[in-house]
Design goal:
globular, two-stranded antiparallel sheet, six-stranded parallel beta sheet, disordered C terminus, alpha/beta, single chain, binds farnesyl diphosphate, 253 residues, Undecaprenyl pyrophosphate synthetase
Length: 253
């Protein structure tokens, strides 16, 4: 009997979705409001999408909240975003715990203010037993910066004699990445019509599928999320190999 689309999406849908949440500034400007207004609207969407994950069979959600390049924005916007992140953690902690969401942060914490880092640590500790959804927030994150920091730690281990140079390979290097406990993303979504990955999860997304949609992030709904997951479920991922036929035989593609 044919599998209905909703069920097929749930059984073959992505386990880990990563999102580049773009378009907050334009969304606010179109309404004659300051850019930070768009970021606040974007934060409300984060909650909606996190809460949709269990219904769609998504176990891991990673969102790009602030990049290593975003410090180039005006001082007012950067300060507004940092204040938004602090407020988000304080306000959402209870709901995240109630929804069994385990929160992790990736990125370099060195440049973030101590109060924010303290709240991040507290939220990670508070939710560390949660299992339903794994939410990872990339904050002061850049893929190249992550690989450079990982390489530095790896080199230190080699210098101390904890790792032999001949053991540095595709298995050992990712253990030094911020994402070492996460599976690689299956699907990367970017909103707002831009088709680039902007230094997001460079190593981890080597075999990810991509969806670039025109919707500005504050307009991105749970329904659109569901449509993208269903579309992913219809894709044929081969990881550079061959398609395996239903009967078990390999079909060269
Ligand atoms: C990109 O839009 C968005 C950001 C740099 C910030 C993303 C932050 C949020 C969605 C806020 C909440 C997040 C969490 C996890 C609490 P843009 O400002 O570059 O938009 P534009 O391209 O239209 O200017």
């Amino acid at each position: 009997m044919p599998v209905p689309p909703a069920q097929s999406a749930a059984t073959r849908g992505p386990r880990h979705v990563a999102i580049i949440m773009d378009g907050n500034g334009r969304w606010a400007t179109m309404r004659g409001r300051p850019r930070i207004f768009g970021h606040h609207a974007g934060a409300r969407r984060v909650r909606e999408i996190v809460e949709a994950c269990p219904d769609y069979g998504v176990d891991y959600l990673t969102v790009f909240a602030f990049s290593t390049e975003n410090w180039k924005r005006t001082q007012a916007e950067v300060a507004g975003l940092m204040s938004l992140f602090r407020g988000y953690i304080r306000r959402e902690a209870r709901a995240l715990l109630a929804n069994d969401v385990r929160v992790r942060f990736i990125g370099d914490r060195v440049r973030l203010d101590a109060k924010l880092v303290g709240l991040m640590d507290e939220l990670e500790a508070l939710t560390q037993q949660c299992q339903t959804t794994h939410l990872t927030v990339a904050l002061n994150y850049g893929g190249r910066d992550e690989v450079a920091r990982a390489t530095r730690r790896l080199a230190e281990d080699v210098a101390r004699g904890h790792l032999r140079p001949e053991d540095v390979n595709e298995e050992t290097l990712p253990r030094y990445l911020d994402t070492c406990v996460l599976p690689d993303p299956d699907l990367v979504i970017r909103t707002s019509g831009e088709a680039r990955i902007s230094n997001f999860l460079l190593w981890q997304s080597a075999y990810a599928e991509y969806e670039f949609v025109d919707t500005l992030w504050p307009d991105f709904t749970r329904a659109e999320f569901g449509r993208l997951l269903a579309s992913y479920a219809r894709r044929d991922r081969r990881f550079g190999g061959v398609k395996v036929a239903a009967a078990g035989g390999a079909v060269a593609r």
